[in-house]
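Submission checklist for the structure archive. All mandatory fields must be present; incomplete records are returned to the submitter.

[x] Identifier: Transportin2-like protein
[x] Organism: Trypanosoma rangeli SC58
[x] Residue count: 941
[x] Sequence attached
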Amino acid sequence: MNFEELYRPTPGDVQSVVRLLHDNGVSVQNSKKAYAELQQYQANPSFCVLLSYVFGAEACPVEGLQLGGSWIQYRRLAGITLKNNLEKSKYALGLGAVKEAARCTLSVLRNPSDARIARVAAQIVVKITALTSFGWWQECGIVDLPNLLLDELFGAGDLRTLSALYTLQYLMEDLPKEVGAASKDIIDRVLTLVLNQHTEANLQKAAFRMCFNIYEQAEQLDWNVEGLSPLQTGLTAASGTFAGVCTTLLEQGCGGDIPLLIQVLRSCVLMLEYLDYFTPMNADEMTRLIDWWIRHTIDIVSSRVDVGEYNLPLKTIAMDLLTAALKLYDRVGGNGPISLLMEPILMMLSGLVPALVNCVPMSTEEMDVILSNDDYRMRDVTAVNYHLNEGNKDISEDMFMEDDCGAATLRASALRCIDALCISSGKETFPHLIEQIRVLWSADRQLKEAAIVLFGTIANGCYTEIELTVSGIVRQLIDTVLSDSEDIFVVSVAIWSLSRILEWACTSDGNILSDIMAAFVSRMQSTSKRVQQAAVSALNTAFVTGHDMGATTNLVDSFPCLTESIIACLPIYCDGNLSLLCDLALHLLAVAEDFQLTSRIGDAFKSNRMERVKYFEASYVALYISGVPNTHVDKDIFSIDRVVAGYLTRFPDSETSFKILGMWYAALKDAVERDIRDDEDLLCNMMLTCSNFLNVTSTAVLAEWICQAQGSLASLAFQLLVTLPKKSVKSAAVTLLHRLLKSIGKSAYPNGMGDTLLVTLASSIREVDLSFDKMELVRLITLMVEVYFSDFPQDASMAFAAAVDALRSDAYNDSRWLFSQMAYDICHALDAVPGLLAQSRPEELARIMAQADNTCGKSVATIHLIDALLSAEEVAFAILPDVMRLIYSWQQAACNFPGTREKLSSMLYFYSNKHSEQLRDHLSALHPNLREMILSTYDMR
């Protein structure tokens, strides 16, 4: 007898599940207790069938049952809970329960009574597909899923078409590898709905939004690679069609639908990144593109036509589109089709610049709102909301207003656009701006504030134009910052504008830099949060600029006064401003050589820490133990502990660091035991703070502690890694697991966890798309391979192979650096386990490292790789061309890194002895100057 014959929902069971849904979504009372009860049934197949039954019921199955809301609300909650259970419990539910969920959900998808229900049904279908496969639906005799979506439902109209659109979107978002290049066919098909005049307006907009959502989601993929994934290939192939639809809709005025117009302009911003994929185009198409993407957009920015509540978001997105075009032009060096889009911008500057400047001054109402929340004693309180999170974006509604597109956003967009104009065409833009600035500067405080922020905005792009007058303007700005008569708005933007010319100040003669620093420091103890933020942010910028320019010594004179101000501000700063203050303290600790100054900072933070711990503990108890509503956890302690850990890095004190580590271990343990999931920031901070203090505690102390704790800190991190879906939590868990293993060794993990974690990591890295996340996983995997290979050779080899599979040598920009770090970690593992060379893709390692900058990390990795190659001569010969590229990449710099030149010489000696003919061929193909340099550097004459 199969599962379906064993259980059928009864009225009593249905009534119980409806009550449970009521307590978890309709009613807000006792939400924690109700959620805990709900969790008990997570992997229960009967509960899954009950949820499926309720979700599929058009009306309440229990006659006369009193409900606390509409039946649709209960159905939606049942569907969301079912989806979550499928995601978390997976195979534990059993095939019968999954098939029942599939059947009930398909009946809803085919005949949805409400858009909200259709959306949830689509999500369940995608979760089941992720759990099984596309072919599973037909193999089980349920349905041919692609045929259902693209044929039966797609053209059915109304909510059934919406169901198909929802499902297609979520499939592309959640299963990108499975959809792959078919994304082009899906997008092309969906866009036919947009262009079909007979399509209902709501479906036309939904279809367009779906395509926008897909391209927006694709921004998270790694595009800094030459070889695109199948999904990326499909998206690029469809980009011309989508861009053409955008142009057509703009020509048609979007039927007078302003929300749709805003969505189309947002889509144009995304599609600019695909410009090279859908160009060149014929002259007429290019003219249309320029007219409607650029000229029409400038007209929107300059227009005085009132579109009511849409004025601000429409102008904001129009400015953002122009900014995106300008930044793309600057990024590619003005080459390609983007240069054609720039021409009308330069021709229309006389109208565009004044329109942008008009958006910069703040109104009296805006200033009043800022002032009402500006007292430094007011906390930035964020209440914790318990809710069932559906995820994904809703294509049935206009969602752009969720971006909080107010006047402040409009001003920021205007300033970004002005900045981009100055960078790309400062000479042409400056004359139109300078007159506007002069007029505003001499006016009232609101307009003067606008003039000063405009000066700071143009300082980089128009430096050549303002070079002769910048000294005098800087003196005026310093006087403004120091003046007691200026209001907080003028002072804060004066500080910001000064921070924009710090590169100039670092190279100027006289005391100008010291005077600027003194002005910044003078405002750190302001009672205005806005001024505090401006002053401390500017000081952080000064340290970064000094470091980048090798001019940190120019800041030394300000250190004593700065130290006193940091200590004075420490008790009164909170929230974001405290975090900035802690960044500043860390900058100072990193470069200050005066032991008395650094000791005073360390003592002040350790003393302040005692008070901050009390605030954290009281708020944590109030929220998670006492259940006090509308409270939030005071997280300022995490900022303080960043500085304490930084101080202990320079001046180790294992007793102090171990005590703090113990506190955060206990807090994390409590959070995990209480199953706290609603505050990922709290969990991440706890784990990252533990990681920081692991770094500064002696190995001997840690080893003794970990034996007593039996690896429970690692167990907590592992539990969070495998049970919480949030990427940020997983990333923090991986960081903590790596720090534990690096600081303590094998004893950091409890017995039985090592092999399980290796298998988990091998599976996880194949599901990760972001290169940064891959780098973190590779770092942990390679360290585990070094430590555990002798214990679990098979699992370690599989995990190592998964890490190696993540490598790619076709990356560029930021991604190139990330892949080079992965290559270095893999080479380090080869030093510990040389036998893994054959499966390490050594040719790929050599290619990646040949493209990397010559650094200490590259030096160590080069030595490890060559050591491994010299012990495997056949492999070394097979990849001779790639190894030679690595050797060439060092040029003469290898002499600056201990052991590197010698190791490269040994590699060349091997090739010269064993494969001299092939080596001569490679050397003869080089440019004579490079060949001469190689021969002389490595004594090969």
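[x] Structure attached
Curator remark: The chain has 49 helices and no strands. The domain at 468-651 is CATH 1.25.10 (Leucine-rich Repeat Variant).
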